[in-house]
């Protein structure tokens, strides 16, 4: 299969997304965990990634998070970005996906997911559009429809958002609104 054919297939899948779901550690962040004497110290998030999420929502794509960890930092960042669908502490991400789909009424085939490691595989293999950052584990990368050129925490989320927006035909319209 040629590279251009694969890209076309990925674009077609991305264009059908109604709900884009993200893992956090290794996707929104570089995967490093910062701990202090009282526990989790914090996480670093990219403002470019955050703006991409807001653009997705503005184009009509719902946004969600499924993460295995529990973090007040994640809850706060999700609230800042207007992400209403947040599943933290998901020990079985497949179950979390099923709950999120039931809550939204959106089938897994109309969902996208970006993950980076083995715990994400049960979701990545069930959604209509599977994506990963450049530095994702090889087992994850080989099961994805699209892989960012950027690593987690370094623009992978924004690159995915731009890809989805272009596939849906929303990118230029949103850009023109800013330039008007």
Question: How would you sum up this structure in a few lines?
Answer:
The chain is an alpha/beta fold. Helices cover 43% and strands 16% of the residues.
Order of helices and strands: HEEEHEHEHEHEHEHH
Structural class: alpha/beta
Helix content: 40-55%
Placed side by side, the strands forming the largest sheet appear as 5-4-1-6-7-8
The stretches of 5 or more residues where confidence is low (pLDDT under 50) are none
Rg of Cα set:
15 Å
Distance between the termini: 41 Å
Largest sheet composition: 6 strands, parallel
Give your account of this protein's structure:
This protein has 180 residues and is of the alpha/beta class. 43% of the residues lie in helices and 16% in strands. The protein has helices at 3-15, 47-58, 72-81, 93-104, 121-124, 138-141, 156-168, 171-179; strands at residues 19-22, 34-36, 39-42, 62-66, 85-87, 111-114, 129-132, 146-147. A six-stranded parallel beta sheet has the order 5-4-1-6-7-8, sandwiched between helices. A two-stranded antiparallel sheet has the order 2-3. α2 (47-58) packs parallel to α7 (156-168). The N and C termini lie far apart (41 Å). The relative contact order is 0.21.
